[in-house]
User: Which sequence fits this backbone?
């Protein structure tokens, strides 16, 4: 796909600049957003409060008393031009394997509480609905499609440490699922959900509008930083991380939970290089090389 | 010294100026919902503006001090009681060890604040003492206060500025139920129908009871989104966008019906389009209204927003002079 020639610049009050790379989602738009974020961080302008790369856009918080808005816009436009001149970005990142118990009783029970008035098809489960709107045979096929290809963390946000992930699949094979008609007021912690073309991995209990597919046994947000994977920070995922979901059964779910309780659990992970050019030229090949890195980890 | 919480009130939390720099991880700024009222509390007790205060919602706590203390109650109008006897608001109050502080019924607004000399000295979490319940950080174990909590109070600093006994009336905020809130249009306002945009900025909107530190929901004539082909990845509803970051103070309108103003504990991003953002100078207003308040969202330019910001700062400078 091709991106619009220029990003759209718009102000969120006197403290926020929003740069919309494209209204629709693509790997390219996500790369431009992330590259501008990295470039802006390196410039270290005084008055920048926060740089929040999102799926196909970028949110920048600034202090207009320190950094005039016109100056910020000029700097970001310069970076946008530079970023677009570099073809085929490369990301030094990591691949993380994330176990998921699909079609589990916890998200099932929650779904049952939010049918009438919340869901498009109150008679079935979220998984049945997700499969049906994509013309798939059944929930099992949706589950298989969900974990067979890896995902890239395209944004972190909503609540503490919650990643949005975009599947490394050709657009024709992307699954798209409507969000709930009205958001649930409850979602079990570590629910893996689906909305639009994104997976959201709920870090904590709370509201949520994505269709629920399953539940993960290990934390992705650990404010007490008990586990080794949270040595640097309480949030596991960074934008650009690659994630491979692995289906597990109840026995393994409990076993991993026991390791988490004992403080010994570690996510299986490996360093990888993600190349946008390679991914666009031969996605399946690039996916294979990413997954091989996990095999030797 | 410390404060012991006898009854916690409706939703009393520790708040300071907020937590900045972690929005990119979904951790919101937090902080007192009425920063101005929290600041005048700190000024009255001789603190710096950075000290943490208690933010009380509608129904205040009952608490006891274990040592002599200097406090001030600011924000929404409320009867202040020391050992059951009325005491003034917006004044410096001296409590003796064992004194009990409690409150009557609030007479407007939603939030009042208790400042104490030395500040509420809970540990810093990511640079702030503000309570973020969803992320279980800040305040007391990352949650609203509960009966039996004992809050540490910091050592009193040498007062850098002359002592102030009370805040003059012309510096106090007002608590009207008819409020003009200045906003900057933008973000995804091009996705609203012409009538929808007109409704947003010309109609009167009523604050519903669905209002807290995360967001405030308003009732009114609705503001419809254009029925257009949706971009890939956004989701089918015309109010959906490809999930993006949310500016603090931005106004989203899920389904084109009820505008929601996102406040300091709101989610940092998501998939609902926003059509305007409350300017920084007017964010305090939401702690000063209660359900039923009638609000107009008045569009201003960036220059006007910056002028309002400078005005607010000048007013705060008068408090601190």
Assistant:
């Amino acid at each position: 796909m091709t991106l619009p020639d220029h990003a759209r610049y718009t102000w969120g009050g006197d403290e926020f600049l929003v740069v919309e790379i494209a209204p629709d989602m693509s790997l390219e738009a996500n790369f431009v957003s992330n590259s501008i974020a990295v470039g802006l961080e390196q410039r270290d302008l005084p008055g920048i409060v926060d740089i929040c790369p999102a799926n196909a856009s970028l949110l920048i918080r600034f202090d207009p008393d320190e950094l005039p808005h016109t100056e910020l816009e000029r700097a970001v436009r310069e970076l946008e031009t530079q970023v677009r001149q570099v073809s085929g970005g490369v990301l030094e990142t990591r691949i993380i394997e994330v176990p998921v118990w699909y079609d589990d009783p916890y998200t099932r029970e929650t779904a049952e509480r939010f049918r009438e008035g919340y869901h498009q098809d109150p008679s079935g489960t979220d998984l049945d609905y997700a499969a049906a709107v994509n013309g798939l045979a059944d929930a099992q096929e949706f589950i298989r499609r969900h974990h067979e290809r890896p995902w890239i963390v395209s944004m972190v946000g909503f609540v503490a440490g919650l990643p949005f992930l975009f599947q490394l699949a050709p657009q024709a094979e992307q699954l798209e699922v409507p969000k709930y008609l009205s958001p649930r007021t409850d979602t079990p912690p570590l629910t893996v959900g689906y909305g639009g073309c994104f997976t959201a991995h709920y870090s904590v209990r709370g509201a949520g509008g994505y269709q629920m597919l399953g539940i993960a046994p290990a934390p992705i947000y650990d404010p007490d930083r008990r586990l080794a994977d949270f040595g640097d920070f309480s949030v596991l995922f960074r934008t650009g991380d690659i994630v491979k979901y692995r289906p597990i059964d109840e026995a393994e779910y409990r076993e991993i939970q026991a390791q988490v309780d004992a403080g010994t659990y570690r996510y299986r992970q490996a360093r990888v290089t993600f190349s946008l050019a390679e991914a666009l030229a031969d996605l399946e090949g690039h996916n294979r090389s990413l997954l091989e890195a996990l095999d030797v980890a | 010294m410390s404060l012991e919480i006898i009854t916690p009130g409706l939703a009393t939390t520790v708040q300071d100026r907020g937590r900045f720099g972690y929005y990119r991880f979904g951790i919101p700024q937090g902080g007192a919902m009425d920063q101005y009222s929290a600041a005048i509390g700190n000024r009255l007790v001789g603190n710096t503006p950075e000290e943490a205060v208690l933010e009380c919602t509608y129904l205040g706590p009952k608490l006891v001090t274990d040592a002599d203390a200097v406090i001030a109650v600011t924000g929404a109008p409320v009867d202040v009681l020391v050992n059951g006897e009325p005491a003034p608001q917006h004044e410096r109050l001296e409590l003796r060890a064992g004194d009990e502080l409690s409150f009557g019924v609030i007479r407007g607004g939603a939030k009042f604040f208790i400042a104490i000399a030395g500040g509420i000295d809970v540990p810093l979490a990511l640079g702030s003492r503000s309570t973020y319940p969803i992320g279980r950080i800040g305040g007391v174990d990352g949650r609203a206060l509960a009966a039996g909590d004992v809050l540490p109070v910091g050592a009193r600093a040498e007062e850098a500025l002359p002592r102030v006994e009370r805040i003059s009336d012309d510096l106090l905020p007002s608590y009207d139920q008819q409020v003009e809130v200045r906003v900057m249009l933008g973000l995804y306002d091009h996705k609203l129908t012409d009538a929808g945009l007109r409704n947003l900025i010309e109609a009167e909107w009523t604050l519903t009871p669905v209002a807290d530190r995360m967001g405030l929901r308003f009732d009114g004539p609705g503001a419809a989104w254009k029925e257009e082909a949706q971009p890939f990845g956004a989701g089918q509803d015309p109010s959906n966008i490809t999930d993006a970051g949310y500016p603090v103070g931005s106004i989203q309108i899920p389904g084109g019906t009820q505008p929601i103003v996102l406040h300091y504990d709101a989610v940092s991003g998501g998939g609902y389009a926003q059509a305007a953002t409350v300017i920084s100078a007017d964010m305090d207003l939401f702690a000063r209204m209660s359900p039923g308040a009638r609000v107009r969202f008045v569009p201003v330019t960036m220059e006007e927003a910056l002028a309002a910001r400078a005005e607010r700062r000048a007013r705060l400078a008068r408090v601190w002079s």
User: Anything to note?
Assistant: Helices of chain A lie at 27-43, 69-85, 105-113, 126-133, 139-148, 250-262, 276-281, 283-296.
